[in-house]
Design a protein that fits this description.
A hairpin with an 8-residue loop joins strand 4 and strand 5. The protein has one domain: Beta Barrel (Elongation Factor Tu (Ef-tu), domain 3). The chain contains one helix and eight strands; from the N terminus they run E-E-E-E-E-E-E-E-H. It is globular. The longest helix has 4 residues. The two termini are 28 Å apart. Pfam families: TrmO_N. Keywords: S-adenosyl-L-methionine. InterPro entries: TrmO-like_N, YaeB-like, YaeB-like_sf, YaeB_N_sf.
Length: 155
Amino acid sequence: MEFHVKAVGIIHSDHATKEEAPIQGIFRPEALGTVEIFPEFSEGLKDIELFSHLFLFYRFDRAEPGELVRHPFLDDEPHGIFATRHPCRPNCIGITVVKLVERRGNLLTVSGIDVLNATPLLDIKPYVPRFDSHPEATEGWFSGKQDRAKPANSE
């Protein structure tokens, strides 16, 4: 099954290359970015400023679908792509959580951005702690590896 997805905006950041971007935004909470919503979708931002954090769904437009089992950034052992956060996924779709700093019309200033500059935005959803936080969640193979340095020349 195939379907068409239309970008609703563009994510702007200071991360020009994958080497400049943090593995996850939580590792660089001060990193600011701007989410630009295209005019035809700007009405959909009504009340977005009532939320402190947002999910951004985006297209890894500079990544290619890759192997279904591969070595992720934070481990030396291969894992299935669906058990990683690697960008080279079958549909090249990414998700990140950012803090909403300010809304100015169709522009959202966010912090904790880990997305490359000029990345197509597919959707936004509010982060709702009661729905989205699961303190009992397990970390799988990530356990104890989150602070590992990002390898040079990583995808």
